[in-house]
Amino acid sequence: MTQAKTTANLIAVLAMSFCLLPAAWGQTSKPNPEQSAAPAQKTKTAHKRKPAAAQAGNPAPSQAVKPEAPVAGKRDPFAPLVNQNKPSGPPLPPGKAGLVIATVRVDGTVKAATGMLAVVTNPDQRTYFLREGDRLYDGDVEKIGLDGVTFKENSKDAFGKPVERLVTKRIYPSAGEQQ
């Protein structure tokens, strides 16, 4: 009689452990369409592949911890609520044609046999060599001197009327000048 009661208790404990086993491994009790028809066999092979340190909750030192993919329909709780990316407007063309005069920094000027050259960098720290008359995104290179570069900037005012202005950027700006 006691042996039958002990056997019944053992079977009950084993049945409960098989029910709780997928939840302990972070799996749902619903079968995935990707899983085979024998989920118990799939669970055992997945259990054998995990290292002992990972089963205890500590990742192995040689393995990096990989974030799990978010569940369908749920938002990632660690994703920022406000988009950090600022809209940059239309994409700029590559090369000199994509340089915006307001963001260009003049690093130096060179007197060459063919004329003056200006060495400028954009905010991405890419270096460009400009000559007089080169076309930029929002203007032209008007004049290159030994101390700086003068640009003719083409823009529009609040009413949409085209406005041209001369912008001088110096190599070593004095106090109060913007670079």
Topology:
Elements: H1 2-24, H2 39-49, H3 52-55, E1 105-112, E2 115-121, E3 127-131, E4 135-136, E5 139-144, E6 148-156, E7 162-170
Antiparallel strand pairs: 1-2, 2-3, 4-5, 5-6, 6-7
Task: Report a brief summary of the structure.
21% of the residues lie in helices and 26% in strands. It is α+β, with helices and mostly antiparallel strands.
Which structural class fits the helix and strand makeup? alpha+beta
Residues in helices, as a percent range: 10-25%
Share of residues in strands: 25-35%
The CA-CA distance between the termini, in Å, is: 94 Å
Low-pLDDT windows of residues? 38-47
**Which term fits the overall shape?**
rod-shaped
Strand count, sense and barrel status of the largest sheet are: 4 strands, antiparallel
In spatial order, strands of the major sheet run 4-5-6-7
Average predicted confidence as pLDDT: 78
Description:
The structure is a single chain. With 179 residues, the protein is of the alpha+beta class. The protein has helices at residues 2-24, 39-49, 52-55; strands spanning 105-112, 115-121, 127-131, 135-136, 139-144, 148-156, 162-170. β2 (115-121) and β3 form a beta hairpin.
